[in-house]
Design brief:
Elements lengths: L13 H18 L1 E5 H20 L2 H10 L3 H14 L8 E8 L6 E7 L2
Antiparallel strand pairs: 1-3, 2-3
Helix pairs in contact: 1-2, 2-3, 2-4
Length: 117
């Protein structure tokens, strides 16, 4: 039996939802932009902002926490070596969410989530 909790469950059990979001954050940091549903994009944005802030601190503890969260060690290296220094002067707002209309098959609201320059 699946237990539902109020909030953004995205219709999945917690473990599945977190694995999906971890993969999406990893892809966002790897490619710089991803296209997904609007609901997922809002959750991904929240986690990506935290991860980039973690990268800006740059301590060993933060690197280990980022490594535990992201699904690819190469992306962890990219986060600390390229992405975080790019936002060193910025206090937040590292991502942009652009609504792109509805998906053809099920009319889900789609969005483009990208890292700002």
């Amino acid at each position: 039996m699946r237990h539902r909790v109020a909030g953004s469950g995205l219709g999945r059990p917690t473990a599945h939802r977190m694995l999906m979001l971890r993969g999406a954050v990893t892809d966002l940091l790897r490619y710089g932009r991803i296209k997904t549903t609007q609901a997922k994009a809002k959750e991904i944005r929240r986690l990506a902002e935290k991860t980039i802030s973690r990268g800006k601190k740059g301590t060993l503890h933060q690197r280990r926490q980022a490594s535990a969260f992201l699904t690819d060690e190469g992306v962890v290296k990219k986060l600390f070596d390229e992405i975080a220094p790019r936002y060193s002067e910025r206090a937040g707002g590292y991502t942009r969410l652009v609504k792109t209309g509805q998906r053809q098959g099920d009319a889900a609201q789609m969005a483009l989530l990208e890292l700002v320059e």
